[in-house]
Amino acid sequence: MDLLVPRYGEGSLSDVVPSLLAGLGVPGAVDVLGVSGPARVCVLLVDGLGWRLLREHGEDAPFLSSLAGRAITAGFPATTASSLAALGTGAPTGEHGLVGFSFAEGGELLNALRWSRYDAAGHVDLRESLVPESVQLRRTAFEAAAGAGVAVRLVLPREHEGSGLTRAALRGGRFEAVLGFGDLVSRVGRALRSADRVLCYAYHGDLDALGHVYGPSSEPWRWQLRFVDRVAEAIAAGLPEGGALVVTADHGMVTAGERVDLDTVGGLREGVRAVAGEARVRHVYTDTPDDVRERWLSVLGERVWLVSRAEAVAAGWFGPRVAGHVLPRIGDLVVAARDSLVLVRSEAERFQAGFTGHHGSLTAVEQEVPLLVAGR
Question: Where does the source fall among the domains of life (predicted)?
Answer without folding.
Answer: Bacteria
